[in-house]
Amino acid sequence: MPQPVTDLLDVDTLLSDEERAIRDTVRTFVDKRVRPEIGQWFEDGTSPKELAAELGELGVFGMHLEGYGCAGTNAVSYGLACMELEAGDSGLRSMVSVQGSLSMFSIWKYGSEEQKQEWLPQLAAGEALGCFGLTEPDYGSNPSGMRTNAVRKGDDWVLNGSKMWITNGSAASVATVWARTDEGVRGFVVPTGTPGFTATDVHHKLSLRASTTSALYLDDVVLPASAMLPGATGLSGPLGCLNEARFGIVFGAMGAARDSLDTALEYATSRIQFDKPIAAFQLTQGKLADMSVELYKGILLALHLGRLKDAGRVRPEQISIGKLNNVREAIQIARTCRTILGGSGITTEYSPLRHANNLESVLTYEGTSEVHQLALGQALTGISAYR
């Protein structure tokens, strides 16, 4: 039996004992809990509700945050957990990164002490799910055009508008909703049971099928003044949250790529054609070699960004390099692995095509490839090409 492809460069030597232990714990959970079921979940378009509590018990929700029941791990450990979760399925990693890096981070970074005490322990334990309402039906890559608004009415705020493509939306107990106000864009902590708040699921998806994706509607949602996040004014608030989530994607995409390559390698060494394993053919070995090179480059890039983040030096354009490269390469690896599997690769029995379908969403959410190209172009030239 061939060794997993990630042994080729002795990546483990770059990790601490604690980082390896966290990675292995999450890998074991995915192997035992997710792999036996994920093909059926994807086919059925379901995400088991009990997973939230199990992931909370595992300790991955908000694991890189300090206090309030969070584990307080370093950024690399969080990234490695994302890699293992996405090796299971991108939808699983999406649930965790939206919970921790968007919902929880927005409250942890910008919220009042009362908001933190009320919500973070519940979210960390998986007793509640959170979602993050920024994207709108007509304003995806351009959040500055958002139409959702919040108007003061006495001591309260009244919110109206809608959000689209919201992970965890209909399953969430609390939503961080960003809205336009007279003083700029502000964030609000919205309990989903508030009158006027509704969420409907998006169906007929070809991607992220084992994940809850919703539209949010706010119709005269009345909130007390204390619902506003006091520490965030303008778009820097939500964009700062997105940078946290993109960091998890940099690692996560490599998990999907690694699982695809491991699957293709196992299949190629056991599938016999013309009286020998298809792994013995030069064309197959060329594919495997090229894919492993791109996988290693992506993993090393992710680890480098993780070390920069732990040192407090990572910049948004550096995260853009990671997101742009790693998702783009991961989807190509998954597609190529499907070709090695031949006709068998189109079934849910094997993971590469499922990963490729999921990565179609990862390619465009939290910044499309084009947006990250423009972010890098601006960093290189000093000229913004967004308008």
TrEMBL record:
<feature type="domain" description="Acyl-CoA dehydrogenase/oxidase N-terminal">
    <location>
        <begin position="16"/>
        <end position="127"/>
    </location>
</feature>
<keyword id="KW-0560">Oxidoreductase</keyword>
<dbReference type="InterPro" id="IPR036250">
    <property type="entry name" value="AcylCo_DH-like_C"/>
</dbReference>
<dbReference type="InterPro" id="IPR013786">
    <property type="entry name" value="AcylCoA_DH/ox_N"/>
</dbReference>
<dbReference type="InterPro" id="IPR009075">
    <property type="entry name" value="AcylCo_DH/oxidase_C"/>
</dbReference>
<dbReference type="Pfam" id="PF00441">
    <property type="entry name" value="Acyl-CoA_dh_1"/>
</dbReference>
<dbReference type="InterPro" id="IPR037069">
    <property type="entry name" value="AcylCoA_DH/ox_N_sf"/>
</dbReference>
<keyword id="KW-0285">Flavoprotein</keyword>
<dbReference type="InterPro" id="IPR006091">
    <property type="entry name" value="Acyl-CoA_Oxase/DH_mid-dom"/>
</dbReference>
<feature type="domain" description="Acyl-CoA oxidase/dehydrogenase middle">
    <location>
        <begin position="131"/>
        <end position="221"/>
    </location>
</feature>
<keyword id="KW-0809">Transit peptide</keyword>
<dbReference type="InterPro" id="IPR052033">
    <property type="entry name" value="Glutaryl-CoA_DH_mitochondrial"/>
</dbReference>
<dbReference type="Pfam" id="PF02771">
    <property type="entry name" value="Acyl-CoA_dh_N"/>
</dbReference>
<dbReference type="InterPro" id="IPR009100">
    <property type="entry name" value="AcylCoA_DH/oxidase_NM_dom_sf"/>
</dbReference>
<dbReference type="Pfam" id="PF02770">
    <property type="entry name" value="Acyl-CoA_dh_M"/>
</dbReference>
<keyword id="KW-0274">FAD</keyword>
<dbReference type="InterPro" id="IPR046373">
    <property type="entry name" value="Acyl-CoA_Oxase/DH_mid-dom_sf"/>
</dbReference>
<protein>
    <submittedName>
        <fullName>Acyl-CoA dehydrogenase family protein</fullName>
    </submittedName>
</protein>
<feature type="domain" description="Acyl-CoA dehydrogenase/oxidase C-terminal">
    <location>
        <begin position="234"/>
        <end position="379"/>
    </location>
</feature>
<comment type="similarity">
    <text>Belongs to the acyl-CoA dehydrogenase family.</text>
</comment>
